[in-house]
Amino acid sequence: MRKLLISIAMLSLLPPAGFAVTAEEKGLTIAVEADRRDQGWQDSKAALQMILRNRQGETSERKIRSRTLEVQGDGDKSLIIFDHPADVKNTAFLTYSHATTPDDQWLYLPALKRVKRIASANKSGPFMGSEFAFEDISSPEVDKYSYKWLRDETFDGQEAFVLERIPRYEHSGYTRQEAWLDKEHYRVLKVDYYDRKTALLKTLLATEFKRYLNQYWRAHRMDMENHLTGKSTTLVWSDIEFRNGFSERDFDRNSLKRAR
Amino acid sequence: MISRKQLLLIFAAWLPLSLWAEQSDWRVSGFVSAQAWYFWQEPLDTIQSDSNVSLAVRPEFYKAWNEGRDSINFIPFGRVDQRDSDRTHFDIRELKWQHVGSDWELRVGADVVFWGVAESRHLVDIINQTDVVENIDGEDKLGQPMVNLSLIRDWGTIDFFVLAGFRKRTFPGPAGRPRIHPPVNPDAAVFESEDAKESIDLALRWSHTIGNWDIGLSHFHGTSRDPRFGFDTDESGALFLLPIYERIDQTGVDAQFTWNSWLWKLEAIRRTGQGESFNAAVGGFEYTLYGLFDSATDLGLVGEYLYDGGPVETRSPFESDVFTGFRFMLNDEQSTEALFGCILDLNSSSRFCSIEARRRFGAHWVGSAEVRTFSSVPMLDPFFTLRQDDYIQLELAYYF
């Protein structure tokens, strides 16, 4: 992170645009600015409804709640509580995320009252059987990718940067991503995910943005379409609240057992 | 032990109770389930049958106040069994008040506590008595009345336990299956001393996460949850086993090292008070292969070695055994998963194998199947009298 900040500081010393700024440098600048705008929210909580759709259009539903603690200089800490379907109720999932090394993850299994530290190298498998992988919804750290600015274009009526993101995490399920960020607020509006065979695998569309604390934009709807399987998942976020006064204690292994 | 009539009353009380809970700020969840067993071999005892069905209910009531810092959990459990009156039973799994402080937590009441990391055997786990009639895998526990204080510090969590009210292990009755022969009569239990029966048990545990390590150190002083067995005869002259409970001290360590797709695990104990002091251990690995053949399926490979230096009378079948297991997780919408595993006795080559599989149907139903087999069991192996009790279990549960 510090290294990145230094490189940004150096970038700002450069002459104005047009001079020898590479596409990679421009890409990084955009990612760092998006990250800068999303700092300082401290903690948040949200309720999340997932609607899973198969190729035949049949749907099933998941409900979870999440609590997140912003961690400066590392990935965030998050606690996810499962509410629906009923057989996974009270199951809870604690993550200390890291940008380029595997996260630390613990799963609480209420039937056995067991807290199990789980292998977390792989973040690319389906999350709760949905089209979202855990890496798609985990803490967006700058260090997770290397970047390249591809072009500017209008997307959905908004001026946008199109950014290539190459995962730096060796166990990522993607070779590359293309992300559309609007120029005004640096919000991620769309992402194309390319799989290990570099074919277009999935597309994410983020919509229904609301601004919190006069600064932080959050999408209230995310649609992920899997082009290979024809399945899709919609995430509907609600009850988003910032600065709840969470502490490290709310994200320890003891909290996992009593999370409701 | 409760009668069927009492259990029917519990079922009958269920509807108004859940309606009332709907109106109040109690949160209600849980399941009801129907279970069927089929045994394809001749039973050792003519009183036993080749099939069995049973019904179970396990609601959970939860209420929190004081911004979640105080809460009450109530989990009653009941089962009605077609053949075995000792398996028709009722238990309060949990009825506890919990208070959460800034760096401490207090729990008072009946609770279930799990310690450990291994898959094939839960060695350090000692707070609760095992509800053996539920499943021979030993993972179902009876509620234990206790006071549990946790102190949360930078250097780890210290848990103090005062355990009041010893719970005797449940055992299948003469008509029950699977069971060892002769049957165990839990009511004939013998305690080493008045101390063993009445006194209060104490336990202490330190647990901590240091980087990739999750470590626990524990000590238990009290009445052993694992009984030894003696022989006796009833009025008709029929032989039965009686459990003998002794005062023990048990020190345990459990550790897991998590590295990429690897989990390395170790549990070890030293126990004194049941004859000569002895050690036991279980350790091994779990390695996960992700996205098998470009699918969403994960395959977990589990290998564990089990050692038990305990006296033969505690009837641990795991003196020197190897467990191998394969866990398939389809990561699909129905959360389909299956675990295939075998424990092989290295001395006698006897083999205990099991398959467990489950799948969700719709939003509320879960179907599961279990197959357990006992093969090449020699006469001196504690599994010997289970040799005719291979079975398949089918269960359908409704979660709410």
Keywords:
heterodimer, A: 260 residues, mainly beta, outer membrane lipoprotein receptor (LolB), chain A, 13-stranded antiparallel beta sheet, globular, B: 400 residues, Porin, 18-stranded antiparallel barrel
Describe what is shown at a glance.
The complex is a heterodimer of chains A (260) and B (400). Chain A is mainly beta and 260 residues long.
Strand composition percent of chain A: 35-45%
Count of alpha and pi helical runs of chain B? 2
Helix content of chain A: 10-25%
Distance between the termini of chain A: 34 Å
Find the structural class of chain B using helix and strand composition.
mainly beta
Question: Strands of the biggest beta sheet of chain A: in what spatial order?
Answer: 6-5-4-3-2-1-13-12-11-10-9-8-7
Envelope shape of chain A: globular
Structural write-up:
The complex is a heterodimer of chains A (about 260) and B (about 400). Chain A is mainly beta and about 260 residues long. Chain A has a single domain, classed as outer membrane lipoprotein receptor (LolB), chain A (Clam). Chain A contains four helices and 13 strands. Chain A is globular, with a radius of gyration of 19 Å. Chain B is globular. Chain B is built from two helices and 21 strands. By secondary structure, chain B is mainly β. Chain B starts with a helix and ends with a strand. Chain B has an 18-stranded antiparallel beta barrel. In chain B, strands 8-12-11 form a three-stranded mixed β-sheet. The interface between A and B is large, with 37 and 50 residues.
